[in-house]
Amino acid sequence: MSGYLTPDEVTAFQRDGYFMKRRAISTAHASDCRRRLEAMEDSLQEDCNKRMKIKAHVVSPWMVDLARNPVILDAVESLLGPNIMLFGSSMFAKAAQSDRFVSWHQDSAYYGLKPNDSVTVWLAFTPSNKSNGGLRVLPGSHLGDDLEHDETYDPKNLLAKGQTIRGVDDSQAEYLELEPGEFSMHHVRTAHGSLGNFSDDRRIGLAFFYIGAHVDSTLGRRTALRVRGEDKFNYWDDDPLPRYDLDPITLDFLTNMWSRYQSKEVQQAAKSGKL
Ligand SMILES: O=C(O)CCC(=O)C(=O)O
């Protein structure tokens, strides 16, 4: 099955800054992803939100396979062209009856990309909707100014730094409601966030951050995974690839990267252009 967007869908994405929606994997495959994820959480004795951030895909080969899913890549190719790199991925899991949330933010404020030719694919492992804290976006916000973010470090916020755009008019928000196995896409400059999950089950999704191979890092040399086409630019070193679930080599890589990202020191260096 092809995932390419129609010309009308591309135009709508360019206007609205988001796309709803395609099926990447079956419902049964999505439940299997959830089962495997929860088995890894049991084995690590920790919630996936704790470390499976920035480069969640390096913890497991099946996540790398999802990042290379052909329907997803067709959809991404429609927006970014044929040469595609994955520079990051994050698990976003909300427990049942939890008030943990994701504040309004623009990923472009933190990703350090030039140009901002980047889209996020949010792949649902469970239903994701208005009643369980599903992702929501501010249509058209990618066309406006860069918005100011306050770093609140609120422990209820699933974002590492609690980065928050203040004063957003929620009445303008669109929910990107998905069934397991479906995905949405949003532009790296689209303001987005989500509320608490007041349902009786977890809400789980895996977000993939794709760029065109022509996109460089403004935060110094980093790593990425080429997922389609060719990379003539060589702006990114290679991500390490997991040999099996929770490969200790790639898990260490992920842990170091995540603690560097969370550290205020790195954040200040990044802001001053030293990284
Ligand atoms: O899953 C969520 O609630 C937020 C996801 C998000 O911030 C993202 O995909 O960039």
Question: What would you say this structure looks like, in words?
Answer:
- With about 280 residues, this protein is α+β, with helices and mostly antiparallel strands.
- It has a single domain, classed as Sandwich (Jelly Rolls), CATH 2.60.120.620.
- Helices cover about 25% and strands about 25% of the residues.
- The strands form four sheets. A seven-stranded mixed β-sheet has the order 1-10-5-12-2-14-15. Strands 3-11-6-9 form a four-stranded antiparallel β-sheet, with no helix packed on it. Strands 4-13 form a two-stranded antiparallel sheet.
- The model is unreliable at about 270-275 (pLDDT under 50).
- The radius of gyration is 17 Å and the shape is globular.
- The protein has seven helices and 15 strands.
- The chain binds 2-oxoglutaric acid.
- 2-oxoglutaric acid binds near residues 92 and 192.
